[in-house]
Every structure is written in structure tokens, then in C-alpha cells.
Amino acid sequence: xxxxxxxSPIDPSLYSTLAFFLMIAGLxxxxxxxxxxxxxxxxxxxxxxxxxxxxxxxxxxxxxxMFTMLTVGIYV
Amino acid sequence: xxxxxLLLALISxxxxxxxxxxxxxxxxxxxxxSASVQIxxxxxxxxxxxxxxxxxxxxxxxxxxxxxxxxxxxxxxxxLKASLSSPLEPGQTVTLEIEEIYHGSVKPFPTEIKxxxxxxVLVEVNLYYTSPYKTETSTAKINIGTKKTESLSKTGKLxxxxxxxxxxxxxxxxxxxxxxxxxxxxxxxxVAERLEREVEVSHWGNVAVTDKVWVKHxxxxxxxxxxxxxxxxxxxxxxxxxxxxxxxxxxxDVYYRDLIGNISTSALRQDYRADxxxxxxxxxxxxxxxxxxxYTIGYNVPSATYLSSDASKYQLxxxxxxxxxxxxxxxxxxxxxxxPEGVTDVDFKTNFELERKPDESRxxxxxxxxxxxxxxxxxxxxxxxxxxxxxTYNWNSILIFKEPLLAISGWAVFFLVLLFFAxxxxxxxxxVSADKKKN
Lengths: 76, 439
Known about the structure:
By secondary structure, chain A is an all-alpha fold. Chain A is 67% helix and 3% strand. Chain A has one domain (12-72).
């Protein structure tokens, strides 16, 4: 068994940067999602667009949240 | 049959301790001895097992015994039988370097003192070298680090800051006679009554170490009330005002706190030459005899320091005990490893006595099935043990995507629920669309 030191798949020094930009993207896309939901009537919205927007927001918010946790020292 | 031969060889072993030189160190709370024993085989058969013995008057306090021939450590079993790497042929001699530590042999006497009093301690050792074999010459010295003695046995003589015991010649195995020294010793009698070390592994590149420490000043207990005014005017005495803990050089996010919160009276500095971080701790109050204290130390270390891997096999190699303070002693010792979710085949290797308890499970952030917590328990671990532990486990590295996926699906559920409610109709009137009216 040849053991080598284990490092994280992503360099921990990048966590704060990643957290910042992912959160910006996540908050931006979820804000757009909310605005879409609130300002437009459901008859003029397209379901596929809403779904894809929800998915993109979820991905950015999920990753952003996780990297924020890693940045502040909650090592998941 | 082989066992029988070995037993026979041991009983019929005709070993003689040619020359024994013992040095006791009683300058701190632990009685440390180092002995150089030259053993000759006077029998007709070769011998490969040597029976060692703890000091006759301190045998129940022995917490550490280590024997070396040259630079080679000998294997010692629970009955203090040392196995030589090559058998001792008849007529040949071998020199053992034996190190022992006794916890509780340096006894405060009187056991209660006033705040301004100095602490006196009593040490009793065997004048003869304790051994099942015959001894030809034995000399011994007790370092006490002071000239201020209260009393000595007649068999001892003060020489500088050490007590030299009478030289003994040609005595049978099992001989014993008490030799005692009563002297002043103000060194910190700090004992960690309990230590809980927790090592939490994250495959996102971090190993978090937490040490919960319960310490006690086990010297002579304080009699009467404590006066802060008198204490300000005291410069030496058997009280403990600070100690130093050694952390790894790469340690970051170090904290020192107790039940109340952060304790600000500490200093942290990096010693690059010694490859360590020095944490100077000052407790909230000076510790007098019999006083207890409890605090928590925690820090993070990059995973590459302790964790290594080969495909799906991982090995976590950590110092099993923190360097709590200079010459520390831990009475009740607990070690926990919080491993990631989904580990299998957990195994361990140590260089000291440790008992594995049933695994526990714990839920922290972004967990579903609970992390495996491997629990160990030990007793009387000292600085001399240089305790290390290596825990190995198997873990599928694809599982690292579990946490981000969990976070993403959590948010996805949130947005989909919003989407669902945004498409419900909340109007009281009949469903005539406002958009249609406009058209």
C-alpha cells in the first residue's frame, strides 16, 4: 500500500472565492426567479423556463452554501 | 511444547545482575527512574526472556516501563517479561537500559498546607535493586533538585541536590528495604484527571482536533482561605499560574475556552525551528493544591498532515495525546475519531495500551446516515509514551459529491415548492383570467 498525503479535490484556499461568486450567482438567479414568479401572471410564464431557472438557482445556492460553510470553518 | 520449554528456561534461568546503576528523578510530580543493568548468564542454557520488576515500594504506581539494549527497544509483555532479540548465551553479559515512570510516588507530606507554606514531599524507594535475580553491585541516586531536605533515611546521604543511597553488594533476588527522602518540592503537581480528544475528519481538506481537559493540582491541598492580596506578594510556592501546550506547527484557528467562553489570557506563537506552535495558557485563576480546572482547546490542521490515501484506502495517523504541558500525565483518557459517512473496515494500530469501544454514530451538517465515531479508552498515559495511533478505513471517494448534492437538492425542493404555490389559484371570484379580459 503506497500511501500519499491526502489533499482536498479543491484547494481550500479557493473556498472563500468560490463561496463569494457562487453565492452572488445563486442570489442573482433566485432573485430573477422570484421576480418572474411575482410580476408575471402564471398564464404568460413558461413552465420549462421556470423549472430551469429553479434548477440553476438550486445548483448555485447549494454549492454557494456549501462553500460558505467550508469557508467559515464548518467542515462538512 | 515450545511454551513449556520457554517456561522451563525462565525458571531455571540463572541470571545475575552484575552491576546496577539507578538514578531516580523526583524533581517533578512523576518519579522517573533510569537504570543501567548489566546481566550475566551463569546458567547452562541460553536465555531469551528476562523478568523485570517495578520498584518494590512503588509497584502499583508504575505507569511506564521501557527497556533497551543499545538503541534497540525490547518487547515487554504485561508481566514485565522482556524478550531479548538474540538469546543470551551462558557466560555472556548484556546491558539493559531501563526507564520507568511512577505516578503518585512523590507524595505531598503534610497533605494540607497553608497558602504561604512550601510544599514538602515524601519519596520512598527500595534501597536494593528490585529483581528476581541475584545482584552483585547496586548503586542508586535520587535527584531531588534542592538542598532543602526535611529528613533522610540513614541509608542515604545528601550530595549537592541529590541523595546518594548506600552501595549494596551481593544480595539475593527479592531483597527490599525502604529508603526515604523528605524534601521541598514546589514543582507543579498538575494532573489531567480526564482528557477527551476528538479528531474529526473532513475529506474537504481538514482535520479538526478538540481536546477537552480536566486538570487538578494534586499537590498538598490548600488549608484555610485563599487571599488574593497575599497571593500578589508571593513569587514562589506550590501554586500553578501557567503552563505551555505544544500544537503542530500547521495548526490554525486555535481556541482556548471553557464553559463561560473564550479565555483571553493565552499567547500563541509559532516556533519554526522546533516545528511546533507554542500555546501559553494562563488559567482564569491560579491553581492551589486540590483545585480543579476544566478547559477546551481546539484547532484545525490541513488534511495532508495526518491523512494519507491509496485509492479507496485511507490512513489517519495522529499523535494520540496532546502535549498538554511539560511532562504531562493523563489518568482517564478518551479518544474519538469522527470519520466521514460511509466508511467501512475501520482498523487501528497503536504503540500503547488502548481499548476500542463500540462505534457510535453522530449527525452533523449535511449528514444523512450519520458519521461513524470510533471510540477508544485508555488509562495513565504520560508524555513518555509518545502515544501514536493510526486508523485505517475504506471510503469510496465518489461519496465526496454527496454533500454538495444534498445541499443542491435541498434548495431544489425549496424552489419547486415555491413554483408549485405560485401556480395555485388564490382568487375568490370565478376563474376568469384578467389577461383574457384585456385581450
